[in-house]
Write a structure and sequence with these properties.
With about 110 residues, the protein is mainly alpha-helical. The protein has six helices and no strands.
Length: about 110
């Protein structure tokens, strides 16, 4: 995450994306970056504009794992629910990688 953050430090315009179907993938990436930077104002602005319902099917399982990571770390009241959704998704999608340690340490450098 630190490496990605360093690459984006010089950028200030996060409104560019290739096509509509990539908008939510791009939005998720930007929100993960804002969470890592602890820029909660920008994070909450983006959260208002993304539904997380329009991922292309071939990426949906993977992208939802990162949605759960983001929501888990940003939630004050539903942490257990997001953790359970994350662990449930991991059962059939690379469980040795998407484990509880990865979830808990995602934003640590």
């Amino acid at each position: 995450m630190t490496w990605i953050s360093e690459k984006f430090k010089i950028k200030t315009n996060y409104s560019n994306y290739y096509k509509f179907e990539h908008y939510e993938q791009y939005g998720l990436m930007v929100m993960l970056l804002f969470m890592f930077r602890k820029d909660f104002e920008s994070l909450h602005l983006w959260q208002k504009s993304i539904s997380f319902d329009n991922f292309p099917r071939n990426y949906e399982t993977l992208m939802l794992q990162y949605v759960y990571i983001l929501k888990y770390h940003n939630s004050k009241t539903n942490k257990i629910s997001y953790k359970n959704q994350y662990l449930e998704g991991a059962k059939n999608f690379y469980p040795s990688f998407f484990n509880e340690v990865y979830l808990n340490n995602y934003f640590k450098s």
